[in-house]
Target: Sulfotransferase
Amino acid sequence: MREPRVRARTSVARNPRQIGEHSVMTTSPVFVVGAPRSGTTLVSAAIAAHPAFHGGPESDFFFRLGAQARADAATDPAWPTKAVELLGSLSRHGERVIDMFGVSTDDLTRYLEQRQPSQSAMLAALFESSLQGDQGPPRWVEKTPNHLWYLREIVDHFPDATIVHVVRDPRDVVRSLVGLPWATGSRVADAWQWLLDHAEIARAREEDPAVEAAIIDVRFEDFLIDPTSALTTICDAAGAEFHPDMLAPERAAEGMILSAEWWKKKNASGIDPARAFAWRRDADEMDDAIATMCDAVIRQFGYDPAGNPISTRMPLACASHRHAALLEPTLLRAAEAGTSIYPAPRDQAGTVWVWSEREAWQEGLTGTARGVMRTRISRALALRPTRTLHRADDFGPARVAQ
Model:
């Protein structure tokens, strides 16, 4: 299991940092990321319950605002006009993000007029523009699970940030996704998305030393069973002292959950150790298949491995978890044969398995979806040799051996 890393901090005060051509003031924020349904809401609420922090709903700042639009707003000569317009355009579940934060465009304008133009100032405005008085604002915690795809941008714009990566056993993650609007209805396919998310985090950590230095891993199960220890680890990394208020995140959670987000309501009931490893109470064959698929990452974080031994590992190029849902019978057969899969990296050497485009057409995928898949497959074709994944394939050890 990866050991949590603690970074020494000499101060948590606001320090000037150079971003691009502008000196900006940062507040050493904490970003909480993780695969959806990994426990990010409850962990971020616990941090926000600390007297030195405050939080808010998911901002989706990096996720929904394009990089070019953000850059244009931060370099516009009429600063902060474009920045305010861009922040005002952000919406989730039909509601403007600035309304969720309780700030107005006038609040944003007044705040940003006093700051050097930068993307960091734009995001900070959501959390700080409503604060009054001469005192420096408390530090803030931002939680958007999908920001795991933007870790390099986070450390570029917030070099003093702490990134908390919340990890949860994929067998509990996929069970928690059942019935949610964006889930596929296939636990196997949702496990594939979990693998994609973890592959992206691993890639960012490997390619950017600043990401590796900023990030710590926190298992959700450890947080539920021994919250004091887990939160102390987070505080140590962020240069703060643990505070007992963090053990009662319910009130902070209420301000971070929208009325439309009914699936998050359980987080308003507090820290419940019974939620840890819930899958064990009614484990089935699908859980074992998921453990086989996700074997490498499961072992990395110290989770229970599959009951059957792993005979081989197979790199797979698959456009998305929705495409993986159509491949469920094939992936289950692979798991039964002891084949663990992982997202094929760009520099993968050896055999890469891809999905037959003909089968995609037969399953009724739209032209856009097939185009996305063709793009992924064309990248994989540059890696020799490449094999096509068919539903009728026999995934015996001899069949998939490299």
About this structure: Residues 1-26, 368-373, 380-385, 396-402 have pLDDT under 50 and may be disordered. The CA atoms of residues 101 and 126 lie 7 Å apart.
